[in-house]
Amino acid sequence: MKDSLRRKLIEKRKHYKNWIEDSKKIEDKFFLLDKVNKSSVFLLYYPHKNEVNTLNIINRLLSEGKTVLLPKVEGKHLLPIKITDINSVSTGYAGIKEPEGEVYQGDIDVIVVPAVAFDEKGYRLGYGKGFYDRFLNKQKALKIGLAYDFQVLNDIPKELHDVPVDIIITPTKIIKTKEEQR
Ligand code: ADP
Ligand code: MG
């Protein structure tokens, strides 16, 4: 069930033409968030295969002097590594660009999570390996998902280990997934 949905959406994203414009709109919305402007340590992802493009966000955070981390895969785990230059990455696990360096040991304020899809409660369909579920369940950071509008579904199959995000940003809206509790 998760698998066929995953394949369908990855295929759709592969042919999606509006990603540059959409990524720009998402970037603008990201910097409207109070929590983003007040935070200093961010873990983002390096965009892979037509995911929402985070490179402008990363560069903007770096130019503001914020601490920017990117994940590096080690075994079954994601390790947060600090970067100072977006070009100092090389191809790693599954062809995804990753940094070299020491594991960041401090607290992370904001984690920007990639996905194949989200549902409106913030539950996430990833690539099927559970890397982010394992990483996020130990993190207190605000979790933000970035998605094109077609990647937000009413409902996706979920399991106990799945960790939802707090906010989803699309080109057209900011969805606070736990609104009723704030
Ligand atoms: P994804 O989130 O990447 O779409 P799944 O949620 O289907 O993928 O998770 C893939 C696998 O990762 C699961 O079958 C599960 O065994 C494993 N997994 C996920 N989270 C954890 C966790 N916290 N501890 C151990 N294994 C986990
Ligand atoms: Mg999962």
Look up the CATH topology: Rossmann fold
The CATH class is Alpha Beta
The assigned CATH architecture is 3-Layer(aba) Sandwich
Coarse structural class: alpha/beta
Strand order within the widest beta sheet: 3-2-1-6-9-11-12
β-strand percent reads 25-35%
What global shape is seen? globular
The number of helical segments is 5
Q: Low-confidence parts lasting 5 or more residues at pLDDT below 50?
A: none
CATH H-level superfamily? NagB/RpiA/CoA transferase-like
The overall strand count is 12
Main sheet attributes: strand count, strand direction, barrel closure:
7 strands, mixed
The average pLDDT value, as a whole number, equals 96
Question: What report would you give on this structure?
Answer:
- The protein has one domain: NagB/RpiA/CoA transferase-like (Rossmann fold).
- 25% of the residues lie in helices and 25% in strands.
- The strands form three sheets. Strands 3-2-1-6-9-11-12 form a seven-stranded mixed beta sheet. Strands 8-7-10 form a three-stranded mixed beta sheet.
- The longest helix is centred in the N-terminal third of the chain and has 13 residues.
- The N and C termini lie far apart (33 Å).
- Bound molecules: adenosine-5'-diphosphate and magnesium ion (MG).
